[in-house]
Design goal:
- The chain is 44% helix and 34% strand.
- By secondary structure, it is an alpha+beta fold.
- The strands form two sheets. Strands 1, 6, 7 and 8 form a four-stranded antiparallel beta sheet that branches. It has a four-stranded antiparallel beta sheet with strand order 3-4-2-5.
């Protein structure tokens, strides 16, 4: 009789253990399913993003002027051609001295001599290049405006002569311009989010475009009198924002 009671109690305990284990398994499956579903939902939400571009522009004035002066002399006698070149060089030096430039502002950058024969008569051509570098932009512009004074003094300016203006302080304005471009990109993202009924979150990724420096008024400039010291710096950034 006692053995039967003990066996019945043992079976009840085992059934209870099985039942509890089954309940725990079910709870575990429910919790796991919830966590998995929530994780997938969060993952899907995290993938929601928008990619936009931001623009920043700034007008600057060049801080370096470089004027290349190319001139030549020709003669049937090499010594005479050299004498003519020396006279032109002296005239150019005097021209810039009168404009208030220091003597070391003008430096030679190249010279060459060519020879050919015409009907048995030798012809010598000497070409020389001088370069003026200055940070005084106003004075450089005044010099360009009077460049035909050189022609009046007998200096024949060749192709390749001209003023080029450069802006050398780009590193100083890069950080604030990138910030402006990113701010502009966020405005675009916020407009997109508003139209789609979402909010803009943090930055998922960003790519900075290259900085371009062009003539402010649309003239391509380059070497020549058409170049201008008034420039426009431009940068475009591509930013990928999370959408909440």
């Amino acid at each position: 009789m006692t053995d039967n009671v003990d066996n019945g109690g043992f079976l009840d305990k085992r059934n209870n253990v099985i039942l509890i284990s089954a309940l725990l398994l079910m709870v575990g499956m429910v919790v796991g399913g919830y966590l998995l579903g929530d994780g997938l939902l969060r993952s899907k939400m995290a993938d929601r993003s928008v990619t936009v571009r931001g623009l920043a522009e700034r007008e600057v004035t060049a801080d370096l002027a470089t004027w290349t002066i190319a001139y030549s002399a020709q003669s049937t006698n090499l010594a005479e051609a050299q004498a003519d070149i020396d006279a032109d060089t002296a005239a150019i030096g005097k021209f810039f001295t009168e404009l208030g430039f220091e003597a070391d502002a003008l430096r030679p950058t190249g010279a060459n001599v060519s020879q050919y024969s015409s009907n048995g008569i030798p012809q010598y051509t000497i070409r020389q290049r001088l370069s003026l570098r200055t940070n005084d932009i106003d004075k450089a512009q005044a010099a360009v405006a009077r460049q035909f004074d050189l022609v009046r003094r007998g200096v024949v300016l060749e192709d390749g002569s001209g003023m080029s203006y450069s802006f050398t302080k780009l590193d100083e304005i890069k950080p604030p311009m990138v910030a402006e471009a990113t701010k502009d990109a966020r405005k675009s993202a916020e407009q997109f989010a508003e139209d789609s009924g979402t909010d803009v979150g943090g930055i998922k990724s960003a790519t900075q475009g290259y900085f371009s420096i062009e003539a402010r008024d649309g003239d391509g400039g380059g070497y020549g009198v058409s170049d201008t010291p008034y420039k426009k710096v431009r940068v475009v950034t591509t930013v990928n924002f999370y959408l909440d």
